[in-house]
Amino acid sequence: MPNTFRLQDVLTEFDDKITSELNVDPLGLQVIWSAYGQKIFRQRISSISNDVRNFTLNLFDHAVTKSLVEDDTMRLGRALLNHPAHAGRGKDSAAFKQACLIYLENLFAFTMVEAQDRPGVETGGILGIAKARRRWEETRGAPTLLFSADPKAHVLVRQNSLGVSGRYKTPLAEMKFFGPGHDYTLPESQGPWQAAERQLFSTTSLGSLRRQLVGHLQTLLASEEREPRIGFKEVPAPLRKSLVEAFRSRAAVGHQTRNFWLGVTELDRGAPGAIYNVLNDDRLPDGGLPTSTIFDLAARRGSLEPSERDKLNRVRLLEPFLAELDLLLQLVLSAKSQTVDDVLGKWTVLGRGGDTLPKAAARIDAAPDMQLQVAGTAAARLKRLLEISRSSDMRTQVRQLVAYHGSIMEDRRQPPWVRLVREEQLKVDVGTRPLPDESSRPPGAWVHQYYIPQFRNLLLGLRGVDA
Fold first, then answer.
1. 250-270 burial, b if ≥16 CB within 10 A, otherwise e?
2. pLDDT tens digits for 24-42?
3. What does 328-379 look like in DSSP terms, one character per residue?
4. pTM of the model
5. How many C-beta atoms lie closer than 10 Å to residue 342's C-beta?
6. SS3 at position 228
7. Residue 454 in contact with residue 50, Cβ under 8 Å?
8. Spatial distance between the Cα atoms of 413 and 11, rounded to a whole number of angstroms
9. Can you tell me the distance from the alpha carbon of 50 to that of 254, in angstroms, rounded to the nearest whole number?
């Protein structure tokens, strides 16, 4: 049957053609701009990993798990050891490590719910806190903690991917704290862990807290249950108190860990370091400088290596091009029914013309290595958008952009937002977009942020500022 939805079509390996911003990214531009943005930040931050407390909590949970895995004196209970998920590999199985991470995340969430009314305790930004609070209320403050990687042990829905360890997996893996399957034994992992031991666990209360948690889990996992469980109130009160104290707020964690995280992420060096310096100087009360200005100031920093400056300048070339394409589609979507000529009239009113897109494309074409920075879907989309924009005929640009949008939506197995009827009439099948004026979208204006808000959020935490 044509157009039949099949579950196996979506339960496959990651497909970067299917963006996470399905409802706000009709041209599929995210995969392009994010690729150039991550050339700068090297996967250290993203839209879902930018909070210093969650960064630290994830690394700490891995440190506890690593200690359990590497402790040859620790013995699992027979039923747990023979669990099919751990059979043959025991503590080195992916399921065992995932169960440790889930258990630690849940224990932390419940301790914060228990302590949420204490002075200085800040629960905002804790992943899964709303679900934990609901479970707390349902059980009258006596939830059960289950040691398992299975969904029945999760507090947060799809916790393996949406919990702390899921959302912060990529940054820690990029920093070489572990490899596939949370393998902590890679040669390149030794340096990061030595830095963590020296700068984090030896200089803060986290070292003592890790020992407490390792001891607690050793006792729990020696039980003869196939899936060990414990009532929350059975977890020693001093341990619960220490856990809250160590992670009571983003500001408290950032104050203790600032130098460590800047050291291991290297976000204060090179291209991100130039942005870091601009943001450190940018204390404006209204949210700060525009992204375009931040990149302009960062690129002018005299101490930058040429290769690092190039990363910033590529974004400065790319974004005006992507922003004009975004604007053109916004004009297409500004009325339920209009002609291509109507769109061209609106384009002209906003100070654009037939040479706007060709000139923006030409600047990218002229930049050495610009298109070599991306691969896969990002490269294919950028190439196609450049082809569309090189046309000197505005009507052709509009028609081809609408067709390109249709191909993006087809990849997502969704209907297009706009249809071109008889090569002239545009029919919009979704809610219309507001028509901007020239003051809100002057030529060259940026619309994408390139992880600047996320970087700013991380830096606020590192300065010891709560959300």
1. bbbbbebbbebbbebbebbeb
2. 899 999 999 999 999 999 9
3. HHHHHTTSSEEEHHHHHHHHHHTT--TTHHHHHHHHHHTSTTTGGG--HHHH
4. 0.90
5. 17
6. coil
7. yes
8. 14
9. 12
